[in-house]
Amino acid sequence: MPNIKIDLEAALTGPGPVVVELGCGNKAKPFSADGRIGIDLVDLPNVDVVANLEAGLAFLPNASVDIVYARSLFEHINNFDNLLTEIIRVLKSDGVCRLMVPHFSNPYHYSDPTHVRFFGLYNFYYYSQEKLQLKRKVPTFYTESRLEITSLKLRFRSPFKGRKWWKRLHEKLFNLSPWMQEFYEENLCYLFPCYGIAIEFRPDRANFKGRD
């Protein structure tokens, strides 16, 4: 059972947008200061809901959230399809999810023993209509959950100061177009490793056949 430490009903029905941060960790400010409902497995000082995200978001009603943030979360999740379907369910029709996931070419992410998966350009397109996909199409029959990707960018980072300009150059070049992104991942990603992928999507209500 989740441990809800704030008045969740009031947070969901307040005058401002409903913002949820999944896997918030040790976030700097409480809900009263930043307006974000922080959800995490670990009961840290500014976590508002302590919950196992593998079990979903049953404590959030359908179409109740304006923005979901999920940075460096999905690589820790075993039940990927369940959580993604839950995010689509709780987002409002005009809501948006903004997330960051590690790219499979990043060697640093293999060092973390809590990581269970890695990502490429196409993972989230398995949940998107074929006509909205990249040039290389992927099947959509594995799931009935549907989303529309509104932004997808490859991110290049380095912990070493002298290499940051080089990484910025890669990021600008390989994000010039979807064609360039696909060419990079097919032919160059192990020569110029990518740190991660920043994705923004919204629910595709017209084609979503998920949970009510």
Entry summary:
This protein is an alpha/beta fold and 212 residues long. The protein is built from five helices and eight strands; from the N terminus they run βαβαβββαββααβ. The chain is globular.
Explain how this protein is built.
Helix 3 links the parallel strand 5 and strand 6. The protein is 20% helix and 23% strand. The chain is α/β, with parallel strands linked by helices. The protein has a domain of 112 residues: Rossmann fold (3-Layer(aba) Sandwich). The chain is globular, with a radius of gyration of 18 Å.
Cα distance spanning the termini: 21 Å
Radius of gyration: 18 Å
Rounded average pLDDT:
93
Q: Decide which structural class fits the backbone.
A: alpha/beta
Largest beta-sheet characterization:
8 strands, mixed
Share in β-strands: 15-25%
Layout of secondary structure:
Elements: E1 3-4, H1 8-13, E2 19-22, H2 31-34, E3 36-40, E4 49-50, E5 65-71, H3 80-90, E6 91-102, E7 147-155, H4 164-174, H5 178-187, E8 196-203
Parallel strand pairs: 2-3, 2-5, 3-4, 5-6
Antiparallel strand pairs: 1-4, 6-8, 7-8
Considering the chains and any ligands shown, give keywords for the structure.
single chain, about 210 residues, alpha/beta, Rossmann fold, 8-stranded mixed beta sheet, 5 helices, about 20% helix
